[in-house]
What does this fold into?
Amino acid sequence: MPKLSSRRVHTPIVLVNFKTYAEGTGKNALKLAELCEKVSFETKVCIGVAPQSVDIAPIASAVTVPVFAQHIDPVTHGSFTGHVLPEAVKEGGAVGTLINHSERRLKLADIDAIITRAREAHLISVVCSNNASVSAATAALKPDMIAVEPPELIGTGIPVSKAKPEVVSGTVDLVKRVNRDVVILCGAGITHGEDVAAALRLGTEGILVASGVVKAKDPYKVLLEFAENMHK
It folds into this structure.
């Protein structure tokens, strides 16, 4: 893992984005984080959670799994009302942050600035990208992780590792040419254990998942299946 990584973060990793789903908000967010912790303990697989900013502190104080913010802004202490300060999420207990999710798209200059601020605040940067070429451009900015997620597959239940395996393998190839230290994750449409195994076979070191876990009828069962397939 990159030098800035917390001792609690290692690969392969399952990173669960809670988004703003009702099942991942407030008390439900805490319950879901506790399920993630339970599966992580049982399988020895690293499972990280990315709740809403207001839920970071209560979750981080209640569980030992790594907590990520869903977004931070490239601001410092000062007059930035309504912005998400990197140091604030760090103090709340987060070890890292998502950047440039397809639902929070940013310009390349902003991505660069946020990666820099994340590094200054000692937060792990996980930059989301939609294809191989954008991932390669992002790799040059030296984030800790890149999660490739074709936006048209997000929430569809159709895994990118099956629908567009060339996107994943192409991303791994291009990114590693630019920066061999970047950890590559696979996202979009992952709902079954075999999707996880396929993603790892294509050269990734983990997955970024949301509705496949958060909105599942039995999140524990899904997480367990994901984690078990990390070893295959």
About this structure: Residues 23 and 214 are 6 Å apart (CA to CA). DSSP finds ten helices and eight strands in the chain.
